[in-house]
Design goal:
The structure holds two protein chains of two kinds. Chain A is mainly α. Chain A is built from 13 helices and no strands. Chain A has two domains: about 80 residues, no CATH class; about 180 residues, MetI-like fold (Orthogonal Bundle). In chain B, helix 4 packs across helix 5 and helix 7 runs parallel beside helix 8. Chain B has one domain: 3-Layer(aba) Sandwich (Rossmann fold), CATH 3.40.50. Chain B is α/β, with parallel strands linked by helices. Chain B has eleven helices and twelve strands. Chain B is globular, with a radius of gyration of 21 Å. Classes of the chains: A mainly alpha, B alpha/beta. Chain A: It is a multi-pass membrane protein.
Chain lengths: ~325, ~325
Amino acid sequence: MTVRAGTTRWVLGRLAGASGTVVVASVVVYAALQLVPGDPLATLTGGKRLTESQLDVLRQTYGLDKGFVAGYLDWAGHVARFDLGTSSVYQDSVNSLLASRLPVSLALIGYAAVVTVVLGLGVAVVSAVAGRRTATLATVLTSGAAATPPFVAVIVLLAVFSVGLGWFPVTGAGSGFLDRVWHLTLPAVAMAIAAFGVLARVGQAAFADQLRREHVEVARSRGVGRAAVLRRHVVRNSLGPVVTVVGLLLASLFVGTAVVETAFGINGIGAFLVSSVSRQDFPVVQAVSLLAVVVFVVISTAVDLLLPVLDPQLRPAVTR
Amino acid sequence: MTTTVDPRPVLEVEGLSLSVPGHDGPVPLLADVGLVVRPGETVGLVGESGSGKSLTIRTALGLTPRRARTAGRVTVDGLDVLSAGRGELRELRRHTAAMVFQDPRASVNGSRTIGAHLVEGLRAGGVDRRQARARAVELLERVGIREPARAMRRHPGEFSGGMLQRVVIAGALSTNPRLLLADEPTTALDVTTQAEVVSLLTSMQAEAGMGMVFVTHDLTLAAAVCDRVVVMYAGRVVEVAAGDELFRSPAHPYTAALLDAHPGLHGPRAALRAVPGRPLALAETPSGCSFRDRCTEADDACAEEVPALRRHGGSDAACLRPGREAWA
């Protein structure tokens, strides 16, 4: 088999695997409707009284009159055409409900991701290069951060920086760029703390491992400057573990919005999921769950495909 | 060849001692090591693993272990390395001295291309990007890499060990150093490629008139390649002699033991004899002569003090009773 054919097969294999995962997850999400005790139709309506014609639409969309397999195919057909159904609470299309909440969540996730990556890798580099005492201090700090769940971070940050010092607002997402950054700072930090800890630990270990390698000593022996050695030999060669972890953390940030948005009164996807669960707005819960799966799968597939491009040593055997 | 003037050495190591901090005080690794390399000369540094060969030549580039304490003098092309600042060391590494490491697989960054490896050294030496690329291709051609322009874009994983060591040599020679430090450059290679790499190194060295230190644990190879051979044991120099002299009549029992442990191709087939005992680190050595516990000739006098290097025939040996004729 030629290298090119091997590479093509490998890429197609990854994509097929990713699609398969999404399909399986969608079956689970659809089946959840049937698993809820009682009549699925009652679950969908959330106990509200609807006209017979409205109920018919629901029955059709969810294929409730057709049995599980045909029903799933019907529903999946709608989803595949990006028709996520109608919220039983808002009587509005789930699409537009999500679309109006997505931007603030994406801004929050993006902000948290930047904080995670910049601080995480920064602390990792410093502690890998610095002396033993600084490294120990950094290890204590990052281990503590990695073990801090978002709901604890939320309470502490609110108590100190909003209520105590009054530097940041308690609630809301702000309007306009700077106001939004100001409003989203505490929520982003709350989401980023644990991710920062994990990334810093992984980065520090990866950098320290590379620093011991001979190619680093070779570069030093040739009079290559310190910063260039770090960039081209230490960080460059650690991209495998670092990018993998960043991908996982990014996906987990998406899920993390549920707690943080609720706590800070931000009207995003996460808070929407929480409120929809309590109001039994089943179509919304399904849609957000499915979205979370897709985000996970897309990110991890992207990381898988990206790694061999970043580092030839990470190429799977068939593509070499 | 007539030498009218004794050219200034490119490397001069005098009374070098080195220790690193340990749990119970400093751990000595080198004691009173001396070494002189003149331009155009190849000096072999031979000994078992842990004898301090690599450490000695790394010191010449200022690559001492973290928090190491040093004493003595190491001079490379006029620069006092042990007291040199960071900037001076960087200049030394960029222009004056270069090192070829043991394992080419480990010494070339596997994530980057061959071209990036070569260009990096040249760029550090102040060559601009375009010239560096052109010169890298030229160097690859000179060390015998086929299709050098294409090789620039390849990764180390696509080369054999021998070919990769040629790349490493090209990288080390790219800045026209006055001193080349070769740290067991053939140990990690197949026997067939060893000879090619050695002849490449020696021909390039002769062409450029560099001084070279050739570190190896193979005494026969050292004797064949080097003008002079320095034998180290447990962080000390025990014998210095011309390559052929050393081979013909070793003056130190350790050198003789090393030779007896190596199969010869010529003459009557003698039984191979392993050197008894295991190689020691300087910190574990007994009083007096470091080798005396493993030496078949040692007596009470050997325990009294560390013998100094003394002239014996064509060699300098650190032994109270040098030369085979003195042994039982």
